[in-house]
Amino acid sequence: MSISTMKAAILEQFKEPFTIRETPRPVARKGEVLVNIKASGVNPLDLKIRDGAAAHTRTTTPAILGLDMAGIVEEVGEGVSGFKPGDAVFGMTGGVGGIQGSLAEFAAVDAALLAKMPLTMSMREAAALPLIAITAWEALIDQAKVQSGQKVLIHGGAGGVGHIGIQLAKMRGAEVFATGSEASQTVIKGLGATPINYTVASVEDYVLAHTGGEGFDVVLDTVGGTTLDNSFHAVKRYTGHVVSILGWGTHSLAPLSFRAGTYSGVFTLMPLLTGNGRAHHGEILREIAACYDQGLLKPILNERLFTFDQIEDAHRAMGEKQVGKIVVSIE
What we know:
This protein has helices spanning 44-50, 123-128, 130-143, 160-171, 185-190, 203-211, 226-234, 254-258, 270-274, 278-293, 311-319, and strands at 5-10, 19-24, 32-42, 68-76, 88-92, 106-110, 114-116, 151-155, 175-180, 194-197, 218-221, 241-244, 262-265, 306-307, 326-329. By secondary structure, the protein is of the alpha/beta class. Strands 3, 4, 5, 6, 7, 14 and 15 form a seven-stranded mixed beta sheet that branches. Strands 10-9-8-11-12-13 form a six-stranded parallel beta sheet, sandwiched between helices. Strands 1-2 form a two-stranded antiparallel ribbon. The mean pLDDT is 96.
């Protein structure tokens, strides 16, 4: 392989296996950084994109997927001042909207989307964080503005966004509760939240048990569907706020209106797809890096190790809903 090419996993057609082959190596243009990718995070969204079931991501084939990445700066383009060759960086930098993703040896990415990694953070941890951390931050801090003393309910507490959300809410001084299946109760409790087994406890039951029937100050829905409907019943009267990362269906707002609560949605991909607001993603990741450095936040990684040649295995594992974030090592 010459310096002008790189190895990449190409999705030639939706629902087909990846083809790993040489492709032209990108060049850092104005405002961009060329990153030698060391690890690529796998998200449920990657599977939907691969199956052609995520029209909102504006993905056409052939494509190089992979939203999250971690790696080493190889070179910087004109106008970039915050990074230099040799810096370890991470970010949610592509894989949608025709932007090259992280399942490749190199990517030229918008420098605004990147942050430097803490010295103690591994490449696998860094690649696991961007999408889930940015989403949880936008939901709980930017939109819900979680504060000390509040009671926060997180649906899907053992999931990617959920387990980071628990840590962020606790960092803000909130008392955190999280729903999950029986199998996820230990993970939720280990993160310092009160676990709620949604398979045996009704909304009315846990609202009464944990809030005296008043409702939670903030409810984060990471599941969508009926879980978002349940969230409208679980929020505190007058001052409660529901925020969802999957509020894409048709829902009755009557339960929320009768509680005089408020609602907002999060669309994490918007800066990537539109170009607007990208600098804020870099800002969030710098905050996340500081939280990690202070021991306030840490991603849960899947115990299995996947290499570049095992991308198919990594995607299958993600489809099996295993515990912990799945990461592919590129080198």
